[in-house]
Every structure is written in C-alpha cells, then in structure tokens.
Amino acid sequence: MRSPFFFLFVSAFILGGCSNPRTAAKKELEEQNIQFTNDDFVLAASTGNVPVLILFGKAGINVNGRNNEGSTALIEAAANGKTRAAGLLLAAGADPRLTNRHGRDALIAAAAGGYTEIGQLLLSRGANPTIRDSAGWTALTLAAFTGHTGIVRLLAAQAPQKHLDEALLLASHNGDRDTVSSLLSQGAFVDARSPDELTPLVIAAKNGNFEVAHLLLQ
C-alpha cells in the first residue's frame, strides 16, 4: 500500500495550479524560514524532508528545477539515500535522466552511495544505466569501485559487456571479493584487459588482493 505522503505529494503538484493553495503553501514555507526557491527545494530533498517537499509541491515548484550548482531535487535525494523523497519526486514527474553539471544523473549518484532501493526506483522510471558522467564513470563502474555489492548486482544484470569488464577491473584493484564474485556471476570476462593490457588477476595481485586473485584463478 502506498504511503499517505504519496497521495499528498502528487495531489500537491496537481493542485499547484490553484492560486489560493499556492499562496497558502508559500506563506507556510516563509513561516518556516524556507524560501520558495530551487535551492531550498533541492535542499529539502537532500535531507529527505517530505513535509516541506509537499509544501513546495502545493506552492507550484518545478519538480525538475535546478539549484545554483546545477543539481535537481531527485539527484540530491538519490545521492543522500533519501528513498521516500526520491520515490515521491519520481511520482510527481521528476526526470531521472537529467544530469548535474558534472554529467552525473540520479542513478550514478545513488550508485556512489550504494543505495540499491533508490537504484531500483530509478530504473523502474526509465533511468539510463549506461550513461557516463564527465569523469567517465557509469553507475556500475562507480558502484564497483566503491564496493557497493548490492547495487552492483542490480546494475550488472543489465549492463553491456564492456561495462561489466570495466567494473571487474576496478573491483579487482580495490580487492572487494563479493563485488568481484557478483560481476563474474553476471558474465564479466575474467581475462578482460585494462588500457594498460592488465588482466583482473594481475591487477589484484599487484595490489596485494590475494583473496580476489585466488577467486579469479578458479
């Protein structure tokens, strides 16, 4: 059963077109020393402040509006593991494909923090797991590099071969056995090659990750 907040939040964005509810919601935000700005809206999402998000919805905020740093409420909710806030924003029409000034979308942000449930929500709403941010990270490669095995499993299930192999190389470098095992089970190539022509086994051994090296030899 959906949370009552779900219906309140979606209704808030629908009713935002009515002038009186908007005015009342803006006044209530002001009474809490919250400005009706994208910056404060995104901040509320980043802290998971659902009641304030509902007020912003009633006041007519653009759910895809960006703060001064170029980020959206959904990206910040995802980056900070605020599952309820992310779900409500998606229900209200937040676009999971939007990126911040670093080319990072909500899925990559969720992957960086290991937030598997948010990752599932984003994928169910059309997030693209194959995009790269401006530094070249995909959601999967970043999750593998940071050792978040849960979301690695989620993303690896639909990743192209190239991304699986990149993730395996990164996980071998960091020595995360569970992540390496998960990637291998999803079809990552054990003899993949890095840009320097190193295999996962060589990378693991060079970095003293002997438990991972043993796994790669099996």
Question: What is the succession of H and E elements?
Answer: HHHHHHHHHHHHHH
Radius of gyration: 20 Å
> What percent of residues are in strands?
under 5%
Helix content: 55-70%
Largest sheet: none
Number of helices: 14
Backbone shape: elongated
Strands, total number: 0
CA(first)-CA(last) distance: 45 Å
Question: What structural category arises from helix and sheet content?
Answer: mainly alpha
Low-confidence stretches: 3-8
Q: Mean of the pLDDT scores?
A: 92
Task: Outline the structure in words.
The protein is an all-alpha fold and 218 residues long. Helix content is 60%, strand content 0%. It is built from 14 helices and no strands. The chain has helices spanning 4-15, 19-31, 38-46, 50-59, 73-79, 83-91, 106-113, 116-124, 139-146, 149-156, 161-174, 177-185, 200-206, 210-217. The chain is elongated and about 70 Å long. It starts with a helix and ends with a helix. Mean pLDDT is 92; it is low at 3-8.
Output the keywords:
218 residues, elongated, 14 helices, disordered N terminus, mainly alpha
Could you provide a short overview of the structure?
With 218 residues, this protein is an all-alpha fold.
